[in-house]
Structure formats: structure tokens, C-alpha cells
Amino acid sequence: YDTQGNGSVWHNGPFNFANGLALNHAQDSIFVVSSWLPGVEKVEINPDGSAGERSVYCTLPKTVPDGIAFDLEGNLLVSCYTPNRIFKIAPDQTATVLVDDWEAHTLSNPTNVAFGGPEFDQLFVSNLGRWHILKINYGQKGMPLASHKRN
What angle do CA 124, 128, 134 make, to 5 degrees? Predict the structure, then answer.
């Protein structure tokens, strides 16, 4: 949708159960969780705003990824509905486990992640399994949500 409320299809897909979305810091690519890939795909944004090249950014075997958010260092955080994990995907696309809760006590079927707090360095995680929001003191600032670019 544009600022006047007019909408159109931006990318025809198909995606493998599209879920969370995040715009990178340069605002030249949108990242899409494909829960049944399982992983994250990257769609470049052309200078005219249309969808560009699409590629697999990372795969996370034996998971069901759901939500994503970038920190200011360019790391992509991916919450996985199952197993109960949050992965940190570095800019070089290597994946490490940030949080793992095999008992599903605190991290229980996480569905999305977002940054907040006074310094924007707290990671909030919504959890479907135990119906709560988890706050993690992440220690690095998160990237704000997309801002409108003016010409």
C-alpha cells in the first residue's frame, strides 16, 4: 500500500508458508520467513520500488521459523516455533543459537521477535505455547522498523 492507501501485489511468490517480514538497514531488501522451507528468503528491492531478485538467505533444517528482526550490527534474529529456539544469523549468513529452551518453560513456541525498551536493546518474544511475552536483555541495539524515505 502507498501513502494514499492504494494497494497492489508486490511479489507473486509463491512462498513456502510466508511468515515474518523484516527490512534490512539499507532498506534495499526485504527478508521473508518461509516456515516450510524452512528458512528465510531475501527479495531485493529495485530502485523503482518493485520486487527484484529473490534468493534463499538461510536454511534452518528441522525447525519451523516464524518471526524475524534485525539488530544494528546486521544480525538477523529468527524465532522458531519449534524447536523452542532463537537463531542469530550473522551478516556472513552463519547461524548460531542465541536461545534454546528444550523444556519450553520460558521460550515456548515463540512466534515473533521485536526490539524495544528505553535503549532499544531489549528483545521481546511472543510465545504461543505459554501465552506470554518474554523480555531478553540483548545488549545490542535493534534496528527500528522501516521508516519512510523522502526524495
Answer: 25
CATH architecture of 18-137: 6 Propeller (2.120)
Q: pLDDT tens, position by position, for the chain (151 residues)?
A: 878 999 999 999 999 999 999 999 999 999 999 999 999 999 999 999 999 999 999 999 999 999 999 999 999 999 999 999 999 999 999 999 999 999 999 999 999 999 999 999 999 999 999 899 999 999 999 998 765 554 5
Predicted TM-score (pTM) of the model is 0.91
Residues 94 and 51: beta-carbon distance below 8 Å: no
Domain edges within the chain: 18-137
Measured between its terminal Cα atoms, the distance across the chain in Å is 18
Contact 36, 17 (CB under 8 A): yes
Which residues, at least 6 apart from 25, have a Cβ–Cβ distance to it below 8 Å? 70, 72, 74, 143
